[in-house]
Amino acid sequence: MTSQSIPSQIQATYDLDDNSFCTQSQRGPDDPTGEPDFPPEEAGHNFTPFNIEYRDFHINPLPQNPLDLFQLFVPISLVQSWIEYTNSWVAHLIENGVIDSWNTPIAKSSRILQWDGISTATAYVWLGIMIYLGIHRDSSIKDHWKAPTIGDQRPLHTISKFMPLRKFQLITRYFRTFDYTKIDMSDEKDLPKTFQAAEPWSNHIQYMSSFLFIPGTNLAVDECMVPFTGRSKETTLVKKKPTPVGFKVWAIAQHGFFLRWLWHVERSPYKAVIVALPSPEPQGKKGKIRTTVSLSITQSVVFHLCNMLPKATYHVFTDNLFSSPNLFRALRKAGHGATGTACPNCGISTGLTDLKGKKKAGASALVYSQVRVIPLKDSLVSQIGWQDNAVVFFLPTMSVTRPPDSNSPRVPIPQV
User: Fold this and answer.
1) Alpha-carbon gap, residue 391 to 377, rounded angstroms
2) At what angle do helices 325-333 and 297-307 cross, to 10 degrees?
3) Fewer beta carbons under 10 A from the terminal one: N or C of the chain?
4) Are 136 and 232 in a shared domain?
5) Domain that includes residue 309, residue range
6) 394 and 248 in a common domain
7) Each residue of 41-51: b (16+ CB within 10 Å) or e?
8) Sign of the C-alpha dihedral, residues 72, 81, 310, 406?
9) Domain end among 165, 182, 199
């Protein structure tokens, strides 16, 4: 088995002025990380769209063998480091006479005493079984090693031929993808220990994803959930989601392919983006003029994810968790277009937000499928209200050029 070489190209990043950011400590303890909340902005009369030529994605040449492609994301050198971490961890436990991190004493019947190390091939087999178990669900893990009998018909899983159940359980309990001596449990300001443990492999997967898949123009940013129901302080509960419990990540993707992502952390280590206000406004009792506003950490994530991609011009699509005129101005200044659904309190002018109030009061509002467009005063962001079952708000900064060879009809942008 030969190891795959890891490309050495360095991903380009944007050149951003240090004054474009502020640290978490400058934002105070009540920084909102939910939907944006800004006062209504002043409406204007003209909209100057940000024009972007459509650019398709590109996939670099891939290995012909599926195993070689898999090993780009899980190279032998990485697996061998995991084996070293695992053997070191087991040796540490046995030396201290315990079987786990909770210092449970070793007994004569403890399985850890049966540990005889693992090879690279065994580690790959174990990893393959883990992937198989995630795809082929059964009532319990043990059931995958049970053979069908008369009166008890069940699937015959061939993984039992490659590794006995007891050995799989033993490896699963003690396998480590990180060096336990380098996890900083005393200071988790930058990244909690759970994510510190996954960070090296996560970074490698992202690096290879960005190397193989060169993104085109259109990108989407959203929150995602990595299923996890074990014991961890970093799990998040998002009700009414397909995966309600797990680790939340912020991801930027194209055509369903994840390019980059950031961990969602309760006390976020990510910097908040500072945006210049289109019209300076008084603040506080003394009426001090405020010329800038800082985005929430959630909104700033969009900016940081774009900055992690190869340097190019992108059209970013978001939902109302992120969208606001201030964010879209920041993206436009950085050379990106943006389109997204928006919530009423993200800074949308009262001329549009009043439509929701009129509908609730039973007064005349938009009829079904009617559209109303109101640009903002600075002409950089437009606002669209569309009557569906309820009024839906959109924020675009773009004038879209149709992709080449597209069969979809062009929908003209409504004029004021």
Assistant:
1) 22
2) 20
3) N
4) no
5) 18-57+187-400
6) yes
7) bebbeebebbe
8) positive
9) 182
Do the domain assignments include residue 5?
Answer: no
Average pLDDT over residues 294-323: 91
Claim to verify: residue 329 and residue 286 sit in the same structural domain: yes
**263 and 381 belong to one structural domain:** yes
Collapse the DSSP code of 172 into the 3-class scheme (helix H, G, I; strand E, B; otherwise coil) and give the result: helix
Distance of alpha carbon 265 from alpha carbon 402, whole angstroms: 38
Map tokens 């992108």 to a residue: 314
pLDDT digits (tens, 9 = 90+) for 175-202: 999 999 988 666 555 678 888 889 999 9
Q: Of 2-11, 41-50, 106-115, which gets the smallest average pLDDT?
A: 2-11
**pLDDT in the model for residue 305:** 94
**Is 390 in the same domain as 339?**
yes
Domain count, the chain: 2
Token readout for 277 is 């206000």
Whether pTM > 0.70 for this model: the answer is yes
Amino acid making up residue 137: R
pLDDT for 7 equals 43
